[in-house]
Specification:
The protein has 369 residues and is α+β, with helices and mostly antiparallel strands. The chain is built from 6 helices and 19 strands. The protein starts with a helix and ends with a strand.
Length: 369
């Protein structure tokens, strides 16, 4: 039967022609429909006014311009919708957060621009002056404090276990020293005892070296060595005359003392601490003065230009963030009717993928603000 049917076809050429014409017509109609359907996803911008021409068509396929998880579909097949109505949305927490941050940065840039344009207020200048005064008082106080600490460390160094020693070999016991050396002079104090004294148990002496003068020494009480703060006394029950014409030296400081190295290191540390502390306090004062000068000074053109550029950059970031957020929303480009919904909440949408079929009730070209 099959072979017989095939053989009969060539005997009916008109039938073949008719069938071919019907198929061609069907293909043409299908192609026309596909050509006149397109995927669009108009963006509604609430912050920036733009003009965008949308060529309305009877058949539109709407889709998202961004990818993400579908959050909501707010229409059903057969619903009548108006131009700009939200039809579906993606989960847009990140995009919304980015927009919030961009808007905050833009507001900050605006405030900075206005601050530069308007100049500093009197209250701000008063606060800056008070800051300068506080920094100056702090510098003065730190300088005074550090000078005292360094002076104390230096005094400890210069008084490192001071002793009177003889430059020659003898069996005499060294005179004892007491008191605190109060001069800020280093070197050697030489004390030379004379042949006689003011009394039978005292001996006159001459001071030379870093200091010059005269004095008296005895074995009963400490006697001052000029105005150095040091006192000298002969050993008790000693023969005063035996010290006649002897010379005793006091090294300031005593580098052979057991505590000399510790005192030296402490002094060096005090010097370094002083330099650093005063430098920090001075830097704080300099910064406070610079801030005051900047507040009082008239806005410079380059500062205004910089602030303007920062504000423009921040505005551009807002516009980009707004566009990214709008890409997560499908809105109706014109009044019309929903004919098909291809998506459901929870699905992952890809950019420019058909989501909602839409039939426009207005076939004219529209301009949307």
């Amino acid at each position: 039967m099959i072979h017989k049917h095939i053989k009969t076809l060539p005997h009916h050429p008109k039938r073949v022609i008719i069938i071919s014409l019907v198929l061609a017509l069907a293909i043409g109609i299908f192609g026309y429909i596909k050509i006149n359907k397109k995927v669009v996803s108009p963006v509604v911008n609430n912050d920036i006014n733009t003009n965008e021409n949308i060529s309305a068509s009877q058949h539109l396929t709407l889709g998202f311009l961004a990818s993400g998880r579908i959050k909501s579909v707010s229409v059903q097949v057969g619903d009548k919708v108006t131009k700009g109505q939200i039809l579906a949305t993606l989960d847009a927490e990140n995009a919304q957060g980015a927009l919030t941050q961009a808007r905050a940065a833009y507001q900050t840039a605006q405030a900075n621009y206005q601050k530069i344009i308007n100049g500093a207020r009197g209250t701000a200048i008063d606060v800056a002056k008070a800051t300068v005064n506080t920094a100056q008082v702090n510098l003065d106080g730190i300088t005074k404090q550090q000078n005292i600490l360094v002076s104390n460390a230096q005094a400890n160094l210069l008084n490192s276990s001071l002793v009177a020693k003889s430059g020659v070999n003898n069996s005499l016991t060294s005179p004892s020293l007491s008191g605190v050396y109060g001069k800020n002079v280093q070197g050697t104090i030489n004390i030379t005892f004379g042949l006689g004294g003011s009394t039978s148990d005292s001996k006159d002496f001459v001071v030379s070296g870093i200091l010059n003068g005269t004095g008296t020494i005895n074995a009963n009480t400490p006697e001052p060595i000029l105005d150095t703060g040091l006192y000298i006394q002969l050993p008790k029950f000693s023969n005063v005359d035996s010290y006649s014409s002897t010379t005793w030296s006091i090294d300031i400081p005593n580098t052979n003392a057991s505590n000399y190295l510790a005192n030296y290191n402490a002094y060096q540390s005090a010097l370094e601490t002083k330099i650093q502390a005063i430098a920090n306090a001075q830097a704080t004062l300099d910064q406070a003065n610079a801030s005051l000068v900047a507040l009082v000074a008239t806005a410079r053109p380059e500062d205004v230009a910089t602030a303007q550029a920062q504000m423009n950059n921040a505005l551009g970031a807002v516009q980009i963030a707004q566009a990214n957020l709008q890409n997560t929303i499908i809105t109706a480009p014109a009044d019309g009717t929903v004919t098909s919904i291809i998506i459901t909440p929870g699905q992952i949408a890809a950019p420019n993928t058909p989501a909602i079929e839409f039939t426009s009730s207005d076939v004219k070209s529209e301009s949307r603000p």
